[in-house]
Amino acid sequence: MSFFISADSLMYYEHYECPAKGAKTLVMIHGAGLNSTFWQSIVPLLEWRYSVLLYDLSGHGQSSEGHPDISWELLTGELHALLRSLRLDRVTLLGHDFGAHLAVQFASAYGSMVESLILISPFAHLPLASLHKEYKLRVSLAKKAARQTLGEAMAKRMSVKHTDAVLTQRIVQAFERVHPPTYVQMVELAMKPLFPKDYLVLQKPILLLSGEQDPVFTPALAGLTHAQLESTGFLVVPDASSLVFVDQPIYAADWIDAFSRKPLPGQRNNAINRELRQHVQQLTKQGYEQWDGNRIRIRCLGKFEVWLNDRIVTGGWNTRYAKSLLIYLAFHPTATREQLCEALFPEVEHPNAMRNLRVYLSHFSKLLETNDADKPCLTIGRDVVKLHYLVDCDLMEFLNDLQQVAAEQDSEVKYGLCEDLLSRLSGKLMPGCYDPFALSLKEKVEQLWEGITLWAADYCTLTGKSSQAIPFLLSGLQHGLADETLYYDRLIAIYQKNGNTKELRKWVRKKRNSLSTPPAEEKL
After folding, report:
1. d(CA 427, CA 407)
2. What is the average pLDDT score of the chain?
């Protein structure tokens, strides 16, 4: 057991020195939320031939809580200082999950110290909405749910052995130990579109390991990554998920050993591979260019606000259907004029609607003008209107997340996501939006939210956390469409149980009034 002081923080590490002359050193970097103990499944299988260095990242395991601001420079600098203190000047980096991403960053900064890289289920980031959604899920659980919930959710993603109570408990305990702000910053850091673009220029021998059942760094994603790189080996480990060295330690150790002894795989530079690599790199580049393009940010929850890149556009949205056009095109970036007329003002006769639309589109296009764009932000053709921005709309994101939560089967994960949704929904929903399309969107959100709030409230009650049900019930009353008595009954039961007579009388009175109100009057 050893500690190293770096940048005012304490780093825990273990160094297993191999007595064999000229033995290479493997530096093992664990993933976000875990710790170095998980490498112990393969250390005995490798230490006879290699020196092995394990360490706990800042805020993980036995290392100190770390720094308020996590950056690649900080993390790579800590590892560099540790290697220098041990007089290690040439190593092979073996990284898992976020640790694989960190290994790439270290090789980019300190290339002369790195002989090769072994990347296990890398914390990959391609311009794929599903990957972005997965990493957002981790951040949401870390911010709003108990760390035990996060650990249990990650155990199911990381190992095919998650039904093993001992292993699951180890993973949960690792996540309970991690410093939450550090974990969140690490995930958000890796969410930036840097990987695998960064390691296209490394020119280091790389071995990619993907678990056959890995739900994130899938074999297909691993194969796509492999196809882009020249000096890369690639293996799909059978009957394994992300933690391939835990699920299949012998298999993983054999491949790590074989690659470390002969890191340059053959037949990677023939004509077919070269052409395939060029095509895949070009497709990835196009994806990144789209990902990094001009953005429009639209806020519809609590208030209406529009940002073009970094410039807020304040006026003009409440006239000539500008707000309605923007929300519709956010969900349908390419639309015909007929579709716009039918969705936004179906009650207007078609000739008049088409004439009005010309005026509305002229006003709308002026609002979107910016000097930052290389091409027009909006194309208005004879028949088709197209928005050329990458859209970041909180309503769209919220609706997608509502659908994800509604479909989630794991109750603990579902509740953690419910807490995140609750924190994001405040104030009015889509203020100032009254066109048919906006109203249909609002109704869809309200229907999903009513089901989620009632489920979350019942889950709190069943798990002995009745007081935590109250904010969900109040939000459901504000934004849901269900029979109000469903909420009143639950609130009354909660206040009866906790003995709050003042609130009990209040909600009994509200229920009585709602039952005595005639339907016609209710609509008014």
Report:
1. 26
2. 86
pLDDT at residue 267 is higher than 50: no
Nearest to 504 by CA among 514, 516, 490: 490
Q: Following CA atoms 111, 116, 120, 126 in sequence, which dihedral angle do they give, to the nearest 10 degrees?
A: 50
Nearest-angstrom CA–CA distance, 130 and 127: 9
- ω into residue 196 within 30 of 0, thus cis? yes
Rounded to whole angstroms, what are the CA distances from 497 to 65, 244, 490, 491?
40, 49, 11, 10
pLDDT tens column, 324-379 = 999 999 999 999 999 999 999 999 999 999 999 999 999 999 998 866 555 678 89
Q: Whole-angstrom Cα distance, residue 465 to residue 459?
A: 8
Q: 425 and 449 in contact (C-beta within 8 Å)?
A: yes
| Residue whose C-alpha is closest to residue 119's, from 185, 192, 211 | 211
Global pTM? 0.72
- Top-confidence residue, 477 or 518: 477
136-159: b (≥16 Cβ within 10 Å) or e: bbbbbbbbbbebebbbbbbbbbbb
- Burial of 231 per CB tally in 10 Å (0-12, 13-18, 19+): middle
Task: Report the distance separating Cα 231 and Cα 288, nearest Å.
Answer: 22
Within 13 A of 296's CA, how many CA atoms are on the CB side?
24
Backbone angles phi, psi at 99, to 5 degrees: -60, -30
Asked if 240 and 213 touch (Cβ cutoff 8 Å), the reply is yes
Instruction: Give Cα 363 distance to the centre of its chain.
Output: 36
Q: Which of 416, 512, 391, 466 is nearest to 145 (CA)?
A: 416
What pLDDT, in 10s, does the model give residues 269-322? 565 555 655 655 565 555 555 545 678 889 999 889 999 887 899 889 999 999
- The helix/strand/coil state of 75 is helix
Two tokens at 90? 């040439």
